[in-house]
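sorry for the late reply, my laptop died twice this morning and i had to redo everyting from scratch. anyway the thing you sent over, i finally got around to it. pasting the sequence first so we're on the same page, its 241 residues, then the predicted structure underneath. double check i copied it right bc i was rushing
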Amino acid sequence: MSNIFLKEDKGISPPPATAAKVGTAANSEAVVNVHTNSTGKEGCSQQPDISTELRDMSRLILEQREELRHTKTQLEALENRLSASESLIDQLKAENQASQREKEQSRVSFSASLLTGGTQSIGPAGDLPLVFKNIITNIGGAYSAYTGVFRAPIRGAYWFSLTVYGLGHQTIHTAASLLKNGGHVVIVYCHQPVYSGSCSNGASLLLEVGDEVFVRLHPGAWVRDIPQHPTTFSGHLLFPM
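ok and here's the structure:
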């Protein structure tokens, strides 16, 4: 009977060593599965997505290129505006300089007496040019004390006046003529037998640039100047044209 009992025990319960091997194999498989899962899933989740990063970098480069293009366009617009401003400034400077030159040229006025000092009578003589040597005013420098000629610097309307002084004489008169480019304009004439006297005349003339106005002694007449300067020649620009 004891042998029958042993056979039944062997069929019901496996040996402890076999169970231990089965357990060990199961545990090893579990460990392998855990290791596989950890290296498979967790390892893949930690690696960067290269394609996504490349797309992001490409988009960033495109955005930067667009910003650079926009900035370049703005710079070109600013350069164009700066160039236009510089051209406008140069134009305004040129216009201002031209206006200043025109303004300076329009300031024309002179007065001169016959002698710089002392007392002297000139004449009687023929058609003698009179040179008014004593400059009183010569704004614009259009009158020459060396030649006695006024030369118009700009086209315009000018006013000229002439006053002469002379001694009284029975046969000699006091007279001088105002001329434009050698042509007679007006005469200043007076005559008295005794003492002294003076007379005046004037004219408004339209002159072109370079036209000349001067004074000549009337043939057979005389004029006189003294320290008080009664014999004078004057002119000034009324307005340019």
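Residues 1-12, 17-44 have pLDDT under 50 and may be disordered.
thats about all i looked at so far, will dig more tmrw
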